[in-house]
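Pasting as-is:
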Amino acid sequence: MGRGRAKAKQQKVARELKYSTHFADLDALQRELGVSKPDSSGAGPEPDAVDDEYEDWTGTDR
């Protein structure tokens, strides 16, 4: 006995989380975590550099 009140409160909190719209300040979160913004120069190394890294394993040359 006594579980009904706790369960009702959990359901209320779950409904609030599900149906309410929360605003997240992502810039503030990045500053807090110390994450730098990605540079706009591109995404990752050049494909040729990645291929050269694995040439030793495959034994093939291009």
